C-alpha cells in the first residue's frame, strides 16, 4: 500500500484562450478593486503594461504597476513591491509573466500583510499568516509558479538563490490564457519548455511522489515532449501553445506536491553566482542528473521514455530506462538550446564551490531517488561541462 499523501495547489484554476479578458471580473470575485500589477521589465516593454491598464480602465478599475522584475530577481524587489502595495492601498496582487514576476508577486502579497522583510521568511513555513489575495497569470509555459507555494530569489551578497516556501504563497487564482504565450520568441519558448519538462521528470521520480502526483507529472511529460518542438519552431500554432501551457500547469502541480530533485539544487549556484536564467540552468543539467539518477529509478525512467514516444518493448530494463535520457537530449538539441556549462561561461575551477552551495539546497536533494554526495555533485558539473 502507498504511504499517506495529500495534494494541494492554487485554490482555483481558469484555463482557456481569451481567459485573460476576465481579469477585472476575477478581481471583483475576490472582493478586491485596487490591484498591484507585477510585471517583469521585458514584458512591460512589449505593450503588456498598456494592455492591462486599458483592460482595467474599461471596467472602471485602477491599478498600480510594479514593473521592475528582472529574470533572476533579487530579494530586495519583494520588499520594494510590498512598500508600493501598502502606499497605494492595493487590496490584491496580480503577477503577470514568467516565474520571476509571479514569484515576486506572491512574496509581495504576504509581505503586505505580515511584518518584517522578505529575508525573514526564507525557508519552509516561516510566513506567519495569509497575504493579500493573489492572481497569477503565466505568459510562458515554464515554471508552473502559478500553482506553487514557492518564491525563489537571488541573494547577491551570498552569491546564491534561496526560496520562500509557505502554503500562504499559494495563489487564490491561476489564470492561464494560451494566447499570452504566442508572442514568446523561440529561445525562451525552448528553455522555459524544458524547465517545465524538468519539473515533470523531477516530480515523477521524486521519492515523495504519490499516485496522484505521478499521474499528473507523467501526463505533463507526454504533453511537453509531443508539443515543444512545434511551439519552438511554429510559435503561432495555438494547439501546441495550449498543450504546452497545460503541460507546464501539470508539471507545476506535480512539483508543488512531490517536490523537485537534484537538478534544482545543482542549478541554484548557476543562477546565484553566474546569473544564468533558471530554465536554461535546469536544461543544461537535466540529462546529466538523469544519467546519475537512473540506477535509483529504472522503472520510472522506462515510463518517462514511453511518455516521450520511445519504443521500449523487449528491451533490457536498463537500456529501456536510458532511452529517457536520450529522448531528453534529442528534444534539447531539436530546440536549439546551448547544452554545456562551458558555452555558458562557467569555469571548471568553480565546480567545488558550486557543489558546496548546491549541497546546502537540501530539500530537493532529500527528494532525489539516489543519494548525492559533494563528490557526485562535482562529477555531474564535470559531465555537464
Give an overview in words:
- This protein is an alpha/beta fold.
- The protein folds into two domains: about 15-180, 3-Layer(aba) Sandwich (Rossmann fold); about 185-385, Dehydroquinate synthase-like, alpha domain.
- The protein is about 50% helix and about 10% strand.
- The chain is built from 14 helices and nine strands.
- It has helices spanning about 25-30, 40-60, 75-85, 100-110, 185-205, 210-235, 240-260, 260-275, 280-295, 300-305, 315-335, 350-360, 360-365, 375-385; strands spanning about 15, 35-40, 65-70, 90-95, 125, 135-140, 150-155, 160-165, 175.
- Strands 1-9-6-4-2-3 form a six-stranded parallel beta sheet, with helices on both faces.
- Helix 2 (about 40-60) links the parallel strand 2 and strand 3 (about 65-70).
- Helix 9 runs antiparallel to helix 11.
- The longest helix has 23 residues, at about 210-235.
- It is globular.
- It starts with 12 loop residues before the first strand and ends with a helix.
- The model has no long low-confidence stretch (mean pLDDT about 95).
Give the full name of the CATH homologous superfamily of the largest domain. Answer: Dehydroquinate synthase-like - alpha domain
Work out the radius of gyration.
20 Å
**CATH architecture level-2 label of the largest domain:** Up-down Bundle
Number of domains: 2
Shape: globular
Order of helices and strands: EHEHEHEHEEEEEHHHHHHHHHH
**What's the tally of helices?**
14
Which CATH C-level class of the largest domain is it?
A: Mainly Alpha
CATH topology of the largest domain: Dehydroquinate synthase-like, alpha domain
Compute the average pLDDT: 93
Structural class category: alpha/beta
Q: End-to-end span in angstroms?
A: 42 Å
Strand content: 5-15%
